[in-house]
Amino acid sequence: MNINAAIIEDNSDIIQTLKYTLAQLSVPVTVIELAQTVDDAYRALKNEKVDLAFLDIQLREGTIFEALEKLFKEGHKLPELVFITAHGSFENALKAIQFACLDFVTKPFDTPDIEAAVKRFLDKKTTMQQNQQTQVGFLLQLMRGDIQSLKSIAIALPKGVIELVDLQQIVYIQAD
Question: Residues 117-170: pLDDT tens digits?
């Protein structure tokens, strides 16, 4: 399984170091987007092919939070986020958590830090796939009438949100 990544960082040396570190991992990670400014970060994170984004907080002309807030307000689905920053203040960590970040790594980072973040990404993806398979199986049981007493089902939405849906409201199901 290949992971498509974005690197949002304004320091060229750190970009090269991170690219080298990602290339050393046992899991293939392909960097498909690079950005050094807030505007470029916005464009890169809009790319739906990006699975995992490594983000510096302080960019040229602003912070990554400006791009994230704009994307969130527009309703774009964000990739999994790993913050890599020298600005590891409590306020920045809190903002990163508000965007449901997967990890928060302080600079200077080393290979085990990045490897742990990628492993967290893979573990989360595996868990989500298993949960989706369980939910689809359960929904099929409901549709066949094997389970009669339930009136609603819990659906896992992106970023860990759970929504209860009345079974009478479901008129169409599509798998991806």
Answer: 999 898 888 777 666 667 666 666 666 665 555 677 777 776 667 777 887 788
Dihedral, CA of residue 69, residue 73, residue 74 and residue 79, to nearest 10: 50
pTM of the model: 0.71
pLDDT at 91 over 80: no
Strand partners, 35: 8
Which of 158-169 are b and which e, b meaning 16 or more Cβ less than 10 Å from the residue's Cβ?
A: eeeeeeeeeeee
Quickly tell me which residue has 């020298």 as its tokens: 86
pLDDT single digits (tens) 95-120: 776 677 788 888 888 899 899 899 98
**Is the CB of residue 21 less than 8 Å from the CB of residue 111?**
yes
